[in-house]
Amino acid sequence: MAAVLAQNIVKRFENVLAVNGITLAVPDGEFVVLLGPSGCGKTTFLRIICGLERQTSGNLIIAGDIVNDVPPRARGVAMMFQSYGLYPHYTVRNNIAFPLRTQRVGRAVIESKVDWASRLLGIEHLLDRRPRQLSGGERQRVALARALVREPTALLLDEPLSNLDAKLRASARQDIKQFQRRVGVTTIYVTHDQVEAMGMGDRIAVIDRGKIRQVGTPAEIYDEPADRFVATFVGTPPMNLLTHNGAHLGFRPENFLPKEMIRGGDFSEFSFRVDRSEYLGSERIVYGAIEGFDSSQPITAKLPAHGAEQTLRPGEWHPFAVRNKDLRYFDQDGKRTDRH
Amino acid sequence: MATIAEPAARTASRFRFILDRREVLGSIFVAPAILYVLLLVGVPFLLAVYYSVSAYTIYDPSWRFVGLTNFRQILQNPVFLETLENTFLFTFASQLLGLILGKFGALLLLRPFPGRKIVRALIILPWAVPIALASVAWEWMFDSLYSVINWTMITLGIIDRSEAPNWLGNPHLAMLCVIVVNAWRFFPFAIVIFLAGITSVPQDIIDAATVDGAGFWRRNYQIILPMIFPIVAVGLIFGIVFTFTDLSIVFLLTNGGPINATSVLGFQGFQVGILSGDVSHGAAISLFMLPVLLLMVVGMLRFIRRREI
Amino acid sequence: MQRIIASTLREVSFYGAVAFFVVLTAFPFYWMLITSLKSNPDLYNVTNIPFWFNEAPTLEHFRYLFEDTLFARWLLNSLVIGVCVVAITLVTALPAGYSLARMTGRSGEALGIGVFLTYLVPPTLLFLPLSRIVASLGLQNSMWSLVLVYPTFTIPFCTWLLMGFFKSFPREIEEAAIVDGCSLFGAFIKMVIPLSLPAILTTVIFTFTLTLQEFVYALTFISSSAQKPVTLGVATDLVRGDIFFWGEIMAGALIASIPVAIAYNFFLDRFISGITGGAVK
Ligand SMILES: Nc1ncnc2c1ncn2[C@@H]1O[C@H](COP(=O)(O)OP(=O)(O)OP(=O)(O)O)[C@@H](O)[C@H]1O
Ligand SMILES: [Mg+2]
């Protein structure tokens, strides 16, 4: 059964169509990531799920009940905010206990659950502090404990890592995923960072301008993008697109190799002019253009950092190739097609 | 994909959660304040308008409609015309004086110096302290016999005891006195407003102007003043409204005299409507404030909106 | 050398100007103080230097004020009026300010400005009809009439002040509370109120000082001495026949002024940002 089911949700602010008909089913226990560029309506959609906004139209069903007109407190979902929204005048203990108190849970139960949640997140030693006495990472854990403590039907997270520095972010990513596994809570996670999305999501929903473009596992999203938007939004550098008779031909930079590196199988050959290359330590990105094709973006190739390719000098033409199974075709409207 | 087309059950009726609707609770939250203001500002205002076209007095509380008769009678009264003139003079002169003192004082307080906090606290006093109490102190300082001002001037040899001015007894001096006291009362407010405005101008804008070669005066009048204008305008509107409609200073210092030389609209309205009990004429006199008030409200609307940028 | 003279001159004129302003603003209050402490013979002798004591200072005026006049009663009246008006104002303006800032959207902004503009409606326009209304409620000559009428200006002012504050209050905290199971009302009580205590304190102080400063309504509605608030009592009631009791009047004015002056200095910055509508942060 779907823990959260959104049916054709639309949200219009005065003159902005923030969410434009999203349909999404999130099964029990799944970790779904909503991925999309800034301003595409991710936060708005999340706020509709937890009831902070009322959708303009569409149905929202949580655990089998239509909750369109049910206020947040009766929906049983938890949300972790971007800057955590900890209650500054409460201690950590009371912050975590708050969602239980509002449900009029007995005192003994509250105590044991706070205990459980704080142990789960390793914040037992912080229980008597106040939020302003915590570091960013600690705050994030407290917020997570508060969200998990009442075992919500669904846990909503809105860019929870954006306030952390890069190092902390990597470990926090690990942690969140791990706690989610252990507790098994249905999770909807919003981010515009594709590394987070690929690394954490059981499934990813790619959103653009208020619409879902594709829902799928990270591998599906990456390997079988449903349209040009998904193809170019996911992956760094993004998929190369060649325009040809109005349609498009796409391939990933790591599949675009010097011809001599390809052994076996059918492949298509291109003449590639190298413009410049970037050495990134573990790999090398080569920028250039392909003879006979227009492309709005420079074509990129991702090659191993060390090897024969060091001979690729700017201004030279080289024979490059892509295996035919790695070629993707898109029609005039940007939709995936099987054949050219 | 949609596993459940038909939901199992509705959780609850809409009414159970009626107070969880923002608009509903929001309306309930504003209602008391709006009602209070409507009942005790809106209704009295309409009542005032009605009084002014009726023949209502305390002794004869009739609601008889008399049209614009009251206004016509008032306009034919030379005392009223003098009052009107006094009101404008009082407002204009005291605000001008207050603004000049305020701008000057703000420039002084802008510069850090030892004891600035204390100086600021002392300069705020005239505005903070209830004007009725300060007016009484001024009345004592303007006393015909024991005026400390006169004593100082006599001792310094500026004037002779025999020609010592009777501040509140001479029509021109009395007007000067109420103007000065009112300006004295408002200029600290002007200082505070100027200071607040100037400190809210981002330093990097001032720096940029300096780098671009703007000198002190140019910075002041072409950069800072236009930027703080909305704030200063709001402050000035407050000053005008409260001065134009005031009666306490005049009531306490001169009681409108001598021979109506300092009578202002608010005072006249009080005199006629409350003391003489001629409510309808009093209300009509007060309503002469309305055009200026409306103008100020329009100004306020413009500047209050502009602040949001 | 010339440089030094010029800069010294500049310093001297600067401090001279500061001194001028301080004397201008503070002298009347010094005058209150010195008058209230002088004995009558000293006070009413034109040959004495008025700026300082020519005879021993005395507390006689203060004693007289408290023992032989209704001054203590006026103070009490002012306190009662102030406390009641503060209570009425808080109960109405706190939810109203919050609602206009958060719950009523676009129309809230307009409504807020509308409420604020009523603060510009002067007492001298309303005192006639209000005095009739007060009379018909049987509150004529009673300080309760002031308790009824003062909120007409404290509510608009405080609603505006609080609205500005609530707008700057982080939304996330109340929203977190709402998602965590609070009703809207619960979030207001449990999160918004405790976290706005500084703003509420400012509101309380200013409401109180506004009631102390008010003069016109008090003058209009109240003529019996025992019902007067302190400002009105000191300004109008300490005259016997034609004789002013300057020592007592100044002593009373001083006592009533001090708390207001202190309150203003502590809360000035908040007041300014309130009155200019949050234009200044
Ligand atoms: N309360 C509101 N009133 C009007 N427009 C809004 C409101 N909230 C969001 N929007 C608009 O709706 C669109 C979607 O906003 P939303 O916050 O959902 O984007 P987002 O995907 O979360 O972006 P980001 O990654 O930057 O957080 C934006 O264009 C935004 O300006
Ligand atoms: Mg967002």
Automatic annotation (TrEMBL), chain B:
Keyword Transmembrane helix: yes
Location in or out of the cell: Cell membrane
Domain ABC transmembrane type-1: 84-302
Chief location bin: membrane
The protein's name: Sugar ABC transporter permease
Membrane-traversing stretches: 24-53, 88-110, 122-141, 173-196, 223-244, 283-304
Coiled coil (UniProt feature): none
Membrane topology: Multi-pass membrane protein
Domain of life: Bacteria
Family to which this protein belongs: Belongs to the binding-protein-dependent transport system permease family.
Species name: Bradyrhizobium jicamae
InterPro entries documented for this protein: MetI-like (IPR000515), MetI-like_sf (IPR035906)
Keyword annotations of the record: Cell membrane, Membrane, Transmembrane, Transmembrane helix, Transport
From TrEMBL, chain C:
Membrane listed as a keyword: yes
Residue spans crossing the bilayer: 12-33, 74-98, 110-130, 142-163, 243-267
Gene3D superfamilies referenced in this protein's UniProt entry, alphabetically: MetI-like
Domain of life: Bacteria
Cellular localisation: Cell membrane
Domain called ABC transmembrane type-1: residue spans: 75-267
InterPro entries per the UniProt record, alphabetical: BP-dep_ABC_trans_perm, MetI-like, MetI-like_sf
Name under which the protein is recorded: Carbohydrate ABC transporter permease
Keyword Transport part of the UniProt annotation: yes
Membrane protein topology class: Multi-pass membrane protein
Keyword line: Cell membrane, Membrane, Transmembrane, Transmembrane helix, Transport
One Pfam family linked to the record: BPD_transp_1
UniProt record similarity statement: Belongs to the binding-protein-dependent transport system permease family.
